[in-house]
Amino acid sequence: MLLSLCNEVLRHLPLPEQCALAAKLGYGGLEVAPFTLAEDPTSLPAADLAIIRRVVEDHGLVVTGLHWLLVAPAGLSITTDDAALRRRTTDVMCFMADACATLGGSVLVHGSPGQRALAHAASPEAARANAAQCLAAAGEAAAKAGVTYCLEPLSPRETDFVNTVAEAVALVDEIGLPGLRTMVDTSAAGLAESEPVAAVIRRWWPTGRLAHIQLNDTNRRAPGQGENRFGPILAALGEVGYRGPLAVEPFDYEPDGPTTAAVAAGYLRGILEGLA
User: Which residues are tagged catalytic?
Assistant: First the structure.
């Protein structure tokens, strides 16, 4: 399992410095938030994405995937009744699938809670149908690009649409496309699920519906900076045969981004060494 750092933790640094620090701390990859690359990431041509990939790989890292997909450009929504806005949003989602492949990544994480509110449509049923339409297009684009598009369950503190793995699986199964799956964010799962995160992993990973994991404490800080214990989570991932990236995604950086990244790397590497 490759340790990957969500790069917005170091977004105050230029990309080459992000890469140098992440590599020094023991990360093997970056999970990229597209808004850190450009004000409008969809304006980036393939040639620029190839340069970004080369910068990352020149530092001994790989891009493992993308997340926070709909933060920029502003004003997007997958649940809106506005058909033109849904088309614009779908175009961005499909662009992200192609961009992920160009950067060398394998997975996209669709969190973006502000862009999936039920209130964007006339009814919850309409919002869900609108979202399914957008996600189906993204799933098709992902399959063509050779990557996996994951709908991320988020806690009720963040969104009122898709809070548990079971809800995400139901929607993914309804759409029924191989390029569309779901995943586990340990902070969200720790707040929204009725059983421990390790049990969620053991229950759902063998079904083939899950494709990725992000690691963070329910206090929104990094693993090792809160009360959550990640040994059982990493052990469960080993038991189900997960061999993908372990994406570290804290939201609160205390005392700062570099220290947060360092604490997480040391804490998680210690657990992984103990499980080896």
Answer: 152, 249
